[in-house]
From TrEMBL, chains A, B:
<keyword id="KW-0758">Storage protein</keyword>
<dbReference type="GO" id="GO:0003993">
    <property type="term" value="F:acid phosphatase activity"/>
</dbReference>
<keyword id="KW-0732">Signal</keyword>
<keyword id="KW-0325">Glycoprotein</keyword>
<dbReference type="InterPro" id="IPR005519">
    <property type="entry name" value="Acid_phosphat_B-like"/>
</dbReference>
<feature type="signal peptide">
    <location>
        <begin position="1"/>
        <end position="22"/>
    </location>
</feature>
<dbReference type="GO" id="GO:0045735">
    <property type="term" value="F:nutrient reservoir activity"/>
</dbReference>
<dbReference type="Pfam" id="PF03767">
    <property type="entry name" value="Acid_phosphat_B"/>
</dbReference>
<comment type="function">
    <text>May function as somatic storage protein during early seedling development.</text>
</comment>
<dbReference type="InterPro" id="IPR014403">
    <property type="entry name" value="APS1/VSP"/>
</dbReference>
<comment type="similarity">
    <text>Belongs to the APS1/VSP family.</text>
</comment>
<dbReference type="InterPro" id="IPR010028">
    <property type="entry name" value="Acid_phosphatase_pln"/>
</dbReference>
<dbReference type="InterPro" id="IPR023214">
    <property type="entry name" value="HAD_sf"/>
</dbReference>
<protein>
    <recommendedName>
        <fullName>Acid phosphatase</fullName>
    </recommendedName>
</protein>
<dbReference type="InterPro" id="IPR036412">
    <property type="entry name" value="HAD-like_sf"/>
</dbReference>
């Protein structure tokens, strides 16, 4: 019998010819990608700058408020927390918070798949958000500041199209575990579905170890025209279940808007993100789409 | 025109003759109850024991995982986190995390009430959970240990019936603010609705500054017999909206099972609680009810 991940391979091959790339050291290995290790500068920061300085105590509580979906609708972290957010995201704190989430998700997935529930076997599917879930923007923030409002300017879109984001700490580990368990993988992102960005996203994912998937869903023009992020994402999940027969056993994202709205998935996992907030109920994507247009226009005029 | 809180007073007076007690220093004052100040021993602990020692880093991330509803279904905090949980709950950390939640809730309530939405005016209602939301169990844990599994033994029920719980830090502030805004107050608890426990709960709430409410809902025998905590609580919220015309603008609790299940309330707020977890989807109350029976039986046999 063909191994389950071959099913995945074939499905992906049909959808995107270049998707499945070398299994490298083996899907089951705990990934120790370059992203998993702190840079020398970040290690130095950890030694020099304590996690909580000045307003750190307040910022620590503010961050927990964000994670528990108490603090909503903010456009940027409080100004006094800029340094806190930078220290948090560049250092061990972010990584260990993420690790707890991912460990919990992996344990749950294993139990779900081994439970003997047929629905959780052949059609078991896991939905991953892309930005700050599979791929990290920390490199971008290092250049542009951790208080940068990501949808404000074309710089962010240029960076996405450059495809140089690193894998998010720990997420590759969960991804590899799920592949080994035979779980189908769907990436569901609010990134606009332009040929340029689809290619950049796929290439970046593959380069960072997410080298196989069943679906890579980006937001098409028509779906951008209607509804909030919650409506868009829950609508796509509904299609996966109703039209493709998938059973979404897990759903992981860094925003509550990734996780709310029926069908949420049998269980949801919230990765930390104190850098930006996407409103659960407002329509998003407009600024990003405008940025794509600007970027595309400037690329073509300069070519 | 009578002030709005008089409406509340009259409704409560009809429901429970002893409910509305002295407005004290005035409903609008920021409450500085005895519970808001740390005891001498707790202050000393704060100075002597850093927030994170030994496994503190892991426990800190574990706690954030709990708050964001990633870590579920646990019966007690990991053994190695016992000290962490005690330090967290006895000290400033718990209080400042709660304060961020309550500040956010108060700002939201003010904006909602002042928005001009008629539904959010005359019928605006706020649902409070009781245990670890209005009233704290920290005093109990000081005596029985912070790893105590609260539904295991009659000791917990005896303690509830003694009615010596303190107000939870910050929650009284939110409560008083809501009264000033003319918002109706509902306490919705999973405590069993026995005459003894109803009386103890009401008396304890009043003593701690929660001296007026529109509804105090405890779990009746019939509702205990069916469904999970989520079913019970969402069912009661539905009745409040459909039968009493209330508009639940806010809902605050320390458990995700307080906050999930339609109608959740227009906005929900999760207070921290790393001491125990109530499963969202399992039926609860059985152990507590058994404890009530044992307690009642031993009280009557000793009298």
């Amino acid at each position: 019998m063909a191994p389950k991940r071959l099913v995945c391979f074939l499905a992906v091959a049909a959808a995107l010819a270049t998707t499945c790339h070398g299994w490298g050291a083996g899907a089951g290995d705990v990934v120790s990608s370059s992203a998993a290790a702190l840079s020398f500068v970040d290690r130095l920061r950890q030694m020099m700058i304590p996690a909580a300085v000045g307003d750190g105590d307040y910022c620590d509580s503010w961050r927990v408020g964000v994670e528990a979906n108490n603090v909503r609708g903010w456009t940027a972290a409080p100004r006094k927390c800029d340094n806190y957010v930078e220290n948090y995201m560049r250092g061990h704190h972010y990584r260990r918070d993420s690790k707890v989430v991912v460990d919990e998700a992996a344990a749950y997935a294993e139990a779900a798949v081994l439970s003997g529930d047929p629905a959780a076997d052949a059609n078991a599917t896991w939905v991953f958000d892309v930005d700050e879930t599979a791929l990290s923007h920390v490199k971008f923030y290092k250049k542009h500041g951790f208080g940068y409002h990501r949808t404000d300017e074309p710089a962010f879109m240029e960076w996405l199209i450059a495809g140089r984001a690193s894998a998010l700490p720990n997420t590759v580990t969960l991804y590899k575990k799920l592949l080994l368990l035979g779980v189908k993988i769907v990436f569901l992102s609010d990134r606009p579905d332009t040929p340029e960005l689809r290619n950049a996203t796929a290439t970046n994912l593959i380069k960072e170890g997410f080298d196989c998937w069943d679906e890579l869903i980006l937001r098409s023009e028509s779906s951008t025209a209607t509804g909030s992020v919650v409506e868009y994402k829950s609508g796509e999940r509904k299609k996966l279940e109703e039209e493709k027969g998938m059973v979404i056993i897990g759903n992981i994202g860094d925003q509550w808007s990734d996780l709310l709205g029926s069908p949420e998935g049998r269980r949801t996992f919230k990765l930390p993100n104190p850098a930006y907030y996407i409103d659960n109920y407002k329509r998003a994507g407009t600024a990003v789409r405008a940025a794509v247009a600007i970027t595309a226009s400037s690329s073509s005029s300069s070519s």
